[in-house]
User: Which sequence fits this backbone?
């Protein structure tokens, strides 16, 4: 015969007094895992991911250089300038001081 308490100590490293269920794989609990789309289900995570990828897809070199030049003239980064363009459809000009000031104020 074998000692059940010794068997329990050997499996878990500490004395637990009870054996895990027969279907237990001995791995860590899965309850702490939170998927990248959050705890409330997938929803439209993949739709947003595809839309984000499409919005920030590669543009031609001339378009990127033109946006960079306009962004530097306004005192913004390429990403800030492009984000305003994608959200509003408006090409910022150096004369748009209020909008530029709001963007600069939100920098971290």
Assistant:
């Amino acid at each position: 015969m074998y000692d059940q308490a010794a068997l329990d100590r050997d499996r878990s490293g500490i004395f637990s007094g009870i054996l895990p269920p027969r279907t237990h794989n001995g791995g860590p609990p899965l309850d702490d895992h939170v998927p990248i789309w959050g705890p409330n289900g997938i929803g439209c995570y993949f739709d947003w991911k595809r839309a984000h990828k499409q919005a920030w897809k590669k543009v031609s070199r001339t378009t990127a250089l033109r946006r960079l030049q306009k962004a530097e003239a306004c005192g913004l980064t390429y990403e800030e300038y492009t984000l305003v363009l994608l959200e509003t459809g408006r090409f910022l000009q150096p004369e748009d001081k209020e909008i530029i000031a709001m963007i600069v104020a939100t920098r971290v």
Summary: The longest helix spans residues 61-74. Residues 42-108 form one domain. The radius of gyration is 28 Å. Residues 54 and 87 are 14 Å apart (CA to CA).
